[in-house]
Amino acid sequence: MKKVFPDAAAALAGVVKDGMTIMAGGFGLCGIPDKLIEAIRDSGAKNLTFVSNNAGVDGAGLGILLETRQISKMISSYVGENKLFAQQYLAGELELEFTPQGTLAERIRAGGAGIPAFFTKTGVGTLIAEGKEEREFDGERYIMERGIFADISIVHAWKADTEGNLVYRKTARNFNPMMATASRFTVAQVENLVEAGEIDPDHMHTPGIFVKRIVHLADPVKRIEQRTTRPRATA
C-alpha cells in the first residue's frame, strides 16, 4: 500500500469529517503537525474534538482552527498561551476537558494499548475528580481516568521511511509517539523521507504498522513560542 502522498491536503483527503475526535501531537509549538492542521482548516470540517497538550497560540498551531470555529471541544492540559481559546471558553462557545499533563499522556498511552481505564492519585480531592469513580488502594484514594482513542492522529516526525516507520527528535518526541498509536488512522508529516530499510530498527520510535499516510515536508517553519533574549554587551 502506498503511504507517501504529495501534500497535506492529499494525505487527509477523504479522511476528515464533521464531528471527529482528532489527536494532534506537539508540545507548545514544538513538533506540531502544522501543515496537517492547515489542511484540516481548509477541509472545512467542523464540530471537531481535539486532543492536544495545548491549543496552540493565536494565529499558529490549533489556534488557526479556533479562528475558524471548527473546534467545539478541547481535551488539553495547558491552554494559557491562547487568548482566543480563553475568550471562546469563557463565552461558553468551546467545551474544555481539562486534564493534568501526566494524566493526559497516560490516557493517550492507555488508549493506544487497548486499556479502557486506569486509576491515579492525581486530582483526588480537586475539581478534576468530580463525577469520576473513586477507589481506595492500600489506604490511598485514587480516581478512575478513561483511556482515549481517537478517529485520527496527526503527528510530526523528524524522519520516516516509505513504510511509515517514524523517528522523532528531541522535544518533538513528546506526545507524538503515543498519539500515533491511539487512533484508527494516523497521518504523519515528516522532515526527512528515506527508502524502506534505511532506518536502523533500533532507532525507530513508531513502527510503520500504526501509520497510514505520510507527507514529506522538507524545511518546515519552526516557530519560537516564547523568545527570550538579553542585550548585547556594549564595547
UniProtKB/TrEMBL annotation:
Key words of the record: Transferase
Gene3D superfamilies: Glutaconate Coenzyme A-transferase (3.40.1080.10)
UniProt superkingdom: Bacteria
Keyword Transmembrane among record annotations: no
The keyword Transferase is annotated on this UniProt entry: yes
UniProt xrefs under Pfam families: CoA_trans
SUPFAM superfamilies named among the record's database cross-references: NagB/RpiA/CoA transferase-like
MF-aspect GO terms: CoA-transferase activity
Assigned protein family: Belongs to the 3-oxoacid CoA-transferase subunit A family.
UniProt-recorded name of the protein: CoA transferase subunit A
Source species of the chain: Bosea caraganae
